[in-house]
Amino acid sequence: MSKKLLRRAGFLAATLAAGIFAGAQAAQPIKIGSFLSVTGPASFLGDPELKTLEMYVERINEAGGVLGRPLQLIHYDDAGDASAARNFASRLVRSDRVDIIVGGSTTGTTMAAVPLIEQARTPFISLAGAVVITDPVKPWVFKTPQSDRAAAQRVLQDMKDRGITRIGLISGTDGFGRSGREQTLAVAPEMGIEVVADVTYSPSDTDMTAQLTRIRNTPGVQAVFNFGFGQSPAIVTRNYAQLGIDLPFYQSHGVASDRFLELVGRAGEGLRLPASPLLVPDSLPDTDPQKRVVQAYKSAYEQRWNTQVSTFGGYAFDGLMLAVEAIERAGSTDREAVRKALESIQGYVGVTGVFNMSPTDHNGVGPESFRILEVRNGQWHLIQ
Amino acid sequence: MFAEFIQYLFTGITIGATYALVALGFTLIYNASHVINFAQGEFLMIGGMATVSLLGMGFPMPVAIVLAVMLAGIIGVALQRFAIAPAKQADVVTLIIITIGASIFIRGIAQLVWGKEYHVMPNFSSDEPIRLFGAVLNSQSFWVLGIGALLVVALVLFFTRTLMGKAILATSMNKDAARLVGIRTQMVLMLAFMLSALLGSMAGVTVAPITFTAYDIGIMLGLKGFVAAALGGLGSGVGAVVGGLLLGVVEAMTAGYISSDYKDAVAFSMILLVLFFMPRGLFGSRVVERV
Amino acid sequence: MLNSFMQMRLKGLVILAVIILILPLFMSNPFHYDMATQIAIIAATVVGLNLLVGYAGQISLGHAGFFGIGAYFSAVMTSNYDWPPLPTLLLAAALVGVIAWIVGRPILKLKGHYLSMATLAVGFIIAIIINNEGWITGGPDGMPVPSFSVFGWELSSFNQYSFLGMEVNGYKAWYFFAGLLLLLAVWVAQNIIDSPIGRALRSVHGSEVAARVVGVDTARYKSLVFVISAVYASLMGSFYAHFTGFITPHIASFEHSIVLITMVVLGGMASTFGVILGAAVLKLLPQVLADFQELEMMMFGLILMLTMIFMPKGLLPTAQKLLKKKMSRKKVEEQA
Amino acid sequence: MSALIDVKGLDKAFGGVNAVEGLSFSVDAGQIYSVIGPNGAGKTTLFNLITGIYTPTKGEIHLNGESVVGMEPNKLAERGMSRTFQQMQICMNMTALENVMLGRHLQLKSNLLTTLLRLPSLLKDEEDCRDHAIELMKFVGCGEYIESDASAMSYGALKRLEIARALAADPKVILLDEPAAGLNGTETAALEALIKKIAAQGITVVLVEHDMKLVMGISNRLLVLNYGRKLAEGTPEEIRNNPDVIAAYLGG
């Protein structure tokens, strides 16, 4: 470890020196900036995201780079703190002068960086969920994950298909849960679904039995929907099973990872959630255009890092690939040209979905890109 | 209605028992050295994480638990020896910052060694929930309560029946006098940190099956433990237990009956209210200012 | 003698002003100005907190709550209701002053760790309210804040200004503005410390009984300094919000309170210039450690712990002591 | 002459144990009045009760005819009460001079506005305060410490510094809690002279002291406490010949 430390120190000294005597650039790399929540409460997002970026920047460079120029990844860990994210974004656009930013693991960190990045006129592809990031559209801000509104729509649609009209909602008080709750409450009436119980938990809670008991005792509840991320939904799921509630149970895309299955164990049986096809690549029909992309990403990731792939890494994959695609289309790193190119991307097949960007839609994927998965025998199962 | 109440009550008591054990850890160290150890939560984390990782290496659960608790004890002694003892002349706030630094350091190492992911720990016994008066309870809750009660009893016996325990009590009352009668106060301080680490890690191990465990789980549990200790009255063992249970029950009741959004706010308001009327907590000693 | 004392007071201010003026020579890009501006604003906050913690000896683990109220009051009123920033910020400070006075009266009767606990609780409750009332505060994901402006003149780090015929970038303008704020904060703080009020405050720390028997109404002075430090936090919270353009409830959180008090203790309690150093160090450390990635947290904890163990009086007082020792040794050698 | 301090039926219990019980006495203005008694007799507790640090369980205390039971120490200071402590209460975070200036706290007319803006009126006030404090330090014999930090002073000097601080408030009555404890012969002699000088200014002095030679030499009247109760009260002559006192002191 001390060796690693020494190397790190050497690297630090080198970067500092490079910063001071700026100028000596030989190959003019394309600078991809990134700030991610690699540590802290959102590390389950930032960690696979960073791994994905590192791995694919390597791969692209091995294959000759983009426009004949190598990619250079400049990354900072914001630890989930919005102020830190804003400062690192400032460093990226003002000090490192990156060409494009792919990052922002959470909505909070993304939104804190947005005003600055907008002013600096640097293209920014966010990896966070909330609908506010791209609605209203901001010229320089794009995002790859489906919005939480889309997730809510997809879940409620599935409920409706099963004839459910009255539901209980339980959500976290963190940014993801809050925004998800608002979107669900907003979308529900449009889809003819009534939210009859609405409770929350704080991300640091270690037991949600009280909240679930409250939902269970609300008359008329036909299904329960948990909008949250991190380990809390796993606790909710286990408490749900413990209390023996036998209503249909839904989670959000915030927990769409194999890790979640391990945490909940048998308690997860029968629950459903919206997710990208990344979790069930082999169940996709061969006609599905995403099948090949998803399989390739999954096997590459698992081989390189020796750990299970998660949907969140997929967001970073799509972000990086969209950035590369846009730079290639623009034929340069001219920011306005790259921005325009991003807006014009149509039918790009990614891990998350098929992206159709436009000047009025900087997200490009809708509820239909979500697949509904159900847990059966401890495995994800695609519901057709 | 009654079933609901029982459900909330048991939920509160289970989590409250954890708070109580953390609060007891605070109390032990506070009594021996008047330091508030903000790294107390990290002992919980070490207990849980070390057990999980030892289980992963194939150790049987009892062995894993014993080893994990021992590890925490060693870290507790090291904390006293290398971080608190060299700074004994420092201000109260400075000591607080040192323990905060220590907690960040320990967490940083845990993150390197064990990674950032949440881990599952199996229940000590069956996974089947237990039904009681219409309420459903996790069998692990009984382990938490049982082990908690056992530890409290053991602690009481330790302080009243053993020479070591009496030495700690003597040191907490008057350090100089204790030194005069031949008690090695540095030893006693180390012992207090070790005991406190053992308590914390046991709490961490027993609740891990309910809450999962990760490198950063100690922050909030540690803070709640401090709250419970202050509520009960710093330095009072009974206070720590009552404070912990009360805090847990109030949280669960608020989440169940009032608003889960403001659960923590209600708990904190209760503390303010208690402190307004009882400036030394529920069971704090009423010391007279000596001038 | 009074004159020489006055000069000593002014010396510190002048040195600080000179540092603020020379620093731009070492800053090569807007990011550096960005950090320097934030450091100045946060430093001004802890200069206020230091009055409470360093001089009066009362520990607050909830000061970020007041910082948060200032920031959010300014943000909400200027963006949702189009209030002008300057009056809004002053009103926020007045409001925070009243809140601090109301909660301060009962909780400052508490001593030691109970006071820490109570301030922690107050800070937590404020943070929870900001987090939960998303309809007005934007909830955990935060909210954008308009630029600061006075009489229609907008101060934004992205604008261009001409000043005495010179072209000044917005970020530079903000830097000098924040520097001015810091100087003002230090000047006022020093006026308080070096006055009968300051003496009374310090006596509360030195010996509360002694203070009481010579007629100091300690309860009143504790409340007063609590209010003053809360007003500092509120004002700087408002400026911070306008400067960064986006705020989240994190700025009102317990973690942020801990960061603020750590700046005070690390820099040197009861040393106005020490705490400014503390603010700078703590604000820059994450930037320096950023390249260590997963080692960052461990190193941060280790640095914090070691500094406090080996320099329990804080960075600046320890440095001053060493310097003094060296100087006197030199003197002795010269004489010999 | 009316009594400056009048104590009637004073009781103070700590957890059921009476530290002071049924105590009545009065101190006339201009006197040097001493309280003596063995260790644990309740002398310091009595001082703490009179100066408002403790609230009595029962009983009355009048200062200048006004009932002052339950009054905060700072309110008593406003009424001319001043004191020193057996375990010295010096602000070690300040200079020696600042400690004495603190004593003039009630004599200063500063407010928040003049302080924040450091207006000339404040500066004038401070200068006067400083001059007065320097004078007082010289008066008690701490002249050489005017520039020092309190933490750099010797024990004996600190004892005198505390007296200077108590005098800075222009008190009517000053209570000295064992001022001679820990002092050597020369220092004690200087202290005796100082106490006489203070009394000569018309300030009433109440003294708790173990040094019998000192006490008998300067006191107008004495109060002897034993186990929180009054054993005897009178002139030094009366006390010296009181059989109860002799018995108590000789371990009868």
Number of domains of chain C: 1
Architecture of the largest domain in chain A, according to CATH? 3-Layer(aba) Sandwich
Judged by helices, strands and strand pairing, the structural class of chain C is mainly alpha
The CATH class designation of chain C is Mainly Alpha
Characterization of the model:
- The complex is a heterotetramer of chains A (384), B (291), C (336) and D (252).
- Chain A contains twelve helices and 14 strands.
- In chain A, 44% of the residues lie in helices and 17% in strands.
- In chain A, the strands form four sheets. A five-stranded parallel beta sheet of chain A has the order 2-1-3-4-5, with helices on both faces.
- Chain B is mostly helical and 291 residues long.
- Chain B has a single domain (2-277), classed as ABC transporter involved in vitamin B12 uptake, BtuC, CATH 1.10.3470.
- Chain B is 74% helix and 2% strand.
- Chain B has eleven helices and two strands; from the N terminus they run ααααββααααααα.
- In chain B, α1 packs across α9 and α6 (163-173) crosses α8.
- Chain D has two domains: 1-80 and 172-252, Rossmann fold, CATH 3.40.50.300; 93-170, no CATH class.
- In chain D, the strands form two sheets. A six-stranded mixed beta sheet of chain D has the order 6-7-8-3-9-10, with helices on both faces. A four-stranded antiparallel beta sheet of chain D has the order 2-1-4-5, covered by helices on one side.
- In chain D, α3 (96-103) crosses α5 and α3 (96-103) packs parallel to α6 (155-168).
- Chain D is globular and about 60 Å long.
- Chain D starts with a strand and ends with a helix.
- Classes of the chains: A alpha/beta (384), B mainly alpha (291), C mainly alpha (336), D alpha/beta (252).
- Chains in contact: A-B, A-C, B-C, B-D, C-D.
- The interface between B and C is large, with 46 and 47 residues.
- Chain B: It is found in: Cell inner membrane.
- Chain B: Pfam families: BPD_transp_2 (PF02653).
